[in-house]
Amino acid sequence: MNNTREVEVVVIGAGQAGLAGAYHLRRAGFEPDRDFVVLDHSPGPGGAWQFRWPSLTYGKVHGMHALPGMELTDADPARPSAEVIGDYFDRYERTFDLRVRRPVDVRAVREGHGGRLLVETSRGVWSTRALINATGTWDRPFWPRYPGQETFRGRQLHTAQYPGPEEFAGQRVVVVGGGASGTQHLLEIAPYAAATTWVTRRPPVFREGPFDENAGRAAVALVEERVRQGLPPRSVVSVTGLPLNDAIRQGIEDGVLDRQPMFDRITPTGVDWRWGSPLLERSRELGGSRHVDADVILWATGFRAAIDHLTPLRLREPGGGIRLEGTRVAADPRIHLVGYGPSASTIGANRAGRAAVRDIRRLLAQEPVAA
Questions:
Q1: Which run of H or E residues covers position 37?
Q2: What is the CA radius of gyration of the chain?
């Protein structure tokens, strides 16, 4: 343990939530490298945005909220969001001298001596009095399991591997998932593909009209309640519904967004519905049969929180999630999860970073922590 470095706070992750936390640490008088360190496993600035597909331009991004202390201005809406936000995060890190260390893989966080935590990484060990975990979800794509999945002779990929629509030219594509990514993929792929089929577990919910502040608070409150109960968080989008914009309306009118219920099994050549299942919500069967041929199955089925490195601390509740009080882990006030559950939105991540630093300052000063 001779190479263990001591700091007051370790921040894991340099996406929106991690940078917001680092900014507020800086404002509170903490010095990077001396008092806190930011560890990021990505090759460059930009958080998960740097891995997004090129056709996701900045103009298609839903509600990218600026980082605290620096607005994102004059962004070209036609430029890939990975480039726009990567450059923005890079300027942000340099402007506030956050000194993010990368690439650093955090392998485990364990109990140390004297009430400190040990953060074990690919670049050595840090000993810390408090931890801001801002690792997001991008590294844990969720792949559902269905009978016959291993027999499929075509290609299966997840949103995390989506290369853009051109690669699907002339292919029959089944897109699985009722969120924003699934609808975006379908609308992009349809002009190139030989055929597309959209399947979801539940009927999609489309939201008309503006999504105002009251509606946003109500949606976040639903996610927050699950976290307070120690249940795995649902995404904020899952309770807000999909915005019924012009592109979505056109996709429905053109038949691209013609949702079908979830198939029952995967075959070597496509997907099947059981004869006894409630197949297809429209009046006729697909092609007069209960089978759809496919060359590609694209799983737009979301992500899970990337928090396996916290496993040695045994923070999970019986319900499978980590119970929080604000951003603070109820079972261990040294640890804050930002960008988790109700703070997974870009504006929520900013607020969570500020709240976490406020609590950490009290903790390090050995003052009572607010409820």
A1: strand 36-39
A2: 22
- Between CA 280 and CA 261 the distance in angstroms is 6
Cα gap 328→335, rounded to integer Å: 6
CA distances from 370 to 130, 205, 315, 355 (A): 16, 38, 20, 10
Residue 276 burial (CB count, 10 A): 7
Residue 288 has pLDDT above 50, yes or no: no
For residue 147, the one-letter residue type is: P
Question: Please, which pLDDT band fits residue 53 given cuts at 50, 70 and 90?
Answer: confident
Q: What is the rounded CA–CA span in Å between residue 76 and residue 81?
A: 9
In the numeric block, the tokens 């923005």 are attached to: 88
pLDDT digits (tens, 9 = 90+) for 206-253: 877 665 556 666 666 777 777 777 888 776 666 677 888 888 999 999
- Tokens found for residue 128: 């810390």
- The helix (H) or strand (E) run that includes residue 215 is helix 213-228
What are the start-end ranges of the E strands in 95-137? 106-111, 117-121, 124-133
Q: Which amino acid is at 173?
A: V
Q: Which residues pair with 207 in a beta bridge?
A: 243
CA separation for the pair 204, 294 (Å, rounded)? 22
Cα gap 347→45, rounded to integer Å: 19
